[in-house]
Each structure stands twice: as structure tokens, then as C-alpha cells.
Design brief:
Largest sheet: 18 strands, antiparallel, barrel
Shape: globular
Number of helices: 5
Radius of gyration: 25 Å
Helix content: under 10%
Oligomer: single chain
Number of strands: 32
Amino acid sequence: MKKIIFATAAFLFSAALFAQEALKSTEEEYYDFLSLQGIVERPTLGYRTLSDSEWKFIEETVNVLDENGNPLLDEEGNPVTTKVLPSHPWQNNNLGKKYTLWQSQNQGKNWFTRGYDHNIKCKVYGPEWFNSYNTAAPYGQNDGALWQGKGYNSSLTGGARFEMYGFEVTLKPQLSFSQNLSFEMMTSVYPNQYGYYWGYGLDAPQRFGDAAFWTFDWGDSEFRYTWRSFSLGAGTQALWLGPSQYNPILHSNNAPTYPKFDIGLRKTKVFLPFCNWYIGDIESRIWMGYLTESSFFDNNSSNDHNRINGFTFSYNPSFIPGLSFGVTKVCISKWNSFDIRYLNPFYDSNSGIGEEIGEDQKMSCYIDLIIPRVGLELYGELGLDDYLQGGWIEGLTRYPFDTLIWTAGLKKSITFSKKKNIYGEVIFEYSDMELARNKVSAKAAYCFNMHHQVTQGYTNKGQYIGSALANGGNSQTLSFSLIYPKGKSSILLQRANPDNTYSYINLNNENQTYKGFYIIGLENLHYFLPSFTIKTGIAYQHIVNSKYFTYDSENKVTSTETLHNAIINLTFAYNF
């Protein structure tokens, strides 16, 4: 009987204490909000996937009270205490649970076997059904394989995860549909008529063909083995690098997933040997992936696949608990270029120039500071394409902005009523992906996502791997959310230039030939049942110069077309 009681208690406690969530899901964003208040512990530093994103509540120690509401004392007169989960707005809602299917009585008899969990666990994801409609132009980002074109768009995700003896198996595919209605495009400079309108190396179609289509993507699926903090896996899980909320520079879940293999250390505490002095947390990962060209780029089947190699390292010093910083380097080359040098994080040459092999290297560094006592987070990320001419010292001295892009932001939690569990969250992010001034004056056809040696650019299946804005644009995004026991209501304001680089290089810059848009959006998520939510959203997008200015023979503006795009979203989700 005691074993039954123990197993039941462990089952319920495990289901309530841990949560493993998909990138940018409702649940993950909520846990991230709680981390501002020190209620949950962030499971990662700079490298995040579904498997790594296991959030854990920080338990509170409270006094046990007797029947009169007074502190209960032990035989020595000391207060009796217990640990409880902290109070939070959605504590009565089902945020998704990890269930212990079998509780082992033996958690390891030696140093090696104590390095993994001996229990068998399971978590069910979804199902989640997302729907959107764009009335005038394509719009959408950080949505996986889904292409949110003009018209109706939809995606369905769901799956399950099993863990046992260090092995993890996750199956969470995505099925999507795009009505893909026609709209007036600019002239493609690539062999396919739907291709991008400028550049020498970018697989980013303006439209994915001339008909509606379905897409199946394996999504957040993978096989993994973890021992203590050491982890290796193979699959297609989406990857998010750095602290940015909307526009991470090097990797997001904006594009379809791709097969990859990774190996490294999850977030782990580091102690100096002999003195056992805790010096902070580190996290590091190396990965290699298989990228694919879209069907709307060129007709050369021999160059359809690229190889991406990445290395990332992050550190959280013990003497500044809320601070973390890190660096990431990636290199893209052709898939058949299996050269061991690309696995070396210190390899820093573009030796592929003039060779058949071809390669493109990029790096970024970030810094992130969380101050839970005031509910504030400040973050920033710098990106650099290739390397500075003349070497690091000379290049930084002469012109450090040669291929530099950046994003920075803040998050702030606000307490409106602790008694009624009503809180607010403000997020502001500024992103600048434009080319440097020296590139403008030189009329160089350059942007962070393009490279003449890797003709598809920094994309997978026609969508950007990193920021959806990364092709020479800038944006400013401000959002406010009100979080309460039954849900969340948000307002978003955004202004952006999707590609100023095109204006700088190809058009008369004196006439301010920029394309831009602003968005005003409202979104509401409501828990109709503890496990069932409906999210609704509506936004207005005002697009100025949708095809950029055009000129006649006398250099007079002949077209300044403005589009008015209504964006409607509806999502149904159920958590088991």
C-alpha cells in the first residue's frame, strides 16, 4: 500500500513541477514571463529546442499551519516547514503535463547509472490548430514550415514524447495548408518567376507557385540520449539561438525544419576541481544540418542541398546570477563538401573563394540580463557576416560596421493585483539588419542573408533560417499583455522596413524609395476549460510602397501603391 501511495504522489508531483514546451508556444512564452519574477528557472542560456526547454518551478518554503491558522511547531519548538509550488495566474489551468508512467525504486547504484533518470515518462503535445487569413499580402513569421501567403492558411501540430533511461523520443510533426492567392509581385531576377527581386544568392520566393498547396514537416521530432548534462541527438527539432523575442539573428523557427545532428552540453553547473567552488553555468552545442532549396529558385538539381555547421557557447557567471552571454558561429557550404575544418569553431577563412566548394560563415554574440526583483530583462545581440578585412584588430579599428547587424530589447513584468493574480508584461525590441554605409557608397550588392558562393543564401526551403526580417530591413516592435487567471489579452504595435538594402543599391536613394509597413494588432487567449484554449487575433497592416517607387524616363515617380492588409488569426489548442 505504501508503494502505491508513493508512486501516486510521485506521479502527481512530477506532472506539476516540470514542463517541456515547444518554441514560442503559448506555454513557453508564459513560463518565460514567470522567469522574470523568479517563479521558474530558465532551462537554457543561448541554445533552445523543445527537448532543452524543460521549465522547472522554484519551490517556496512555507510554514505548516495548525487548525487555528498558527505555525505548527516541532518538539524542539521550531516551526514545521514544507515546500510548495509558487502561486501564479494560470495555476488552475492545464499547461501541459509530463506524466510518470512507471516509477523506479532504484535511481542508480553507481556514478554512471545515477547520470540519468530511471523512470519512464510521457508528455502529449496538442493538438493545436492554427488558422490565419491575409486579405492583401503574405504575412507571418516564426511559424515553422507554414507559408502564410495571401488568403487562408492553416497548420495542425501534435504529438508525444517518451523518456526512459536517458533516451528521449519525440514525435511532433506539422501539417500545413496555404491557399496562396495571387498578388502583384515584382520581377524576379532568378530563373524562376516567383523568385526574389534582387541579389546574387537568395532562395526567398515572393510567392510559392500559382496554386494552393499542402506541406508536411517533421517539426519538433527527434531521437536523443542524455547522460547528466551531456546530450546528443538526431532529428528535426527547431532551434532558437539567443535571447531575442521576435528577430534572433542566426536561428529561429521561422523556416521549415531540417535534419540535423547535434552533440554538446545542456545548461550545467561548473565547479572548480579540488576546492569545489561554483563558478557558474555553461552551455555548449555543435550541430550539423541538411538544408534544402525550394522549388522556386533555379533549375539546377546538382546544387539543391547545403550543409550547415554550427557551434555555440554560453556562460552564466555565479557572481552575477541573472547575467548570461555567449557566442555562436555557423558555416554554410555545399552538402558534398564534407571537410572536417567546418567542425572547428575557430576556423575563420573563406578559402572557398574561387573554388567549387564555396562557403559562407556568420557569427553572433549576445548578452542577457534578468533582474527578478524588479521583473526586468535587458538583452542584445550582434551579428557579423564573414570576417573583417585585414583581420580582427585592423578591421575593428578601420571600420567595425562592415557587415554588422544587431537587435536589442527589454521585457518588464508589472503587478496589477497580486491577490487576484493579474499581471502585465511589456516587450520592446529594435532590430536593424541593414547593410553598412560603406556598402551603400560602394553600390555593393550585399545583405546578411546573401552570398554568391552559397546561392540559396541563409535559407531553408525558401524561408529565412534566422530573422524573418534579416534581408536588409529594420523593425521596432512594442507589445503589452495583460495576464489573468482565465487567459491573456495583448496589443502589438510594429513598424518595419522589410528590405531597405534594395533601395540603397538599386534605386534613387535621394527620393526616399523605401518600402515600409506598420501593424496594429489585438490578440486574446481564453481558457474555456482548464485544458482547452481559443486564441483570436486581428490586425491591420498598412503597407507603403508595396513594390517600391518606379520612375519614368524623366525620373518622376509613377507608382506609390499602398496596400491595406487585414490579418485574422484563430487557434484552438488542447492540453492533455
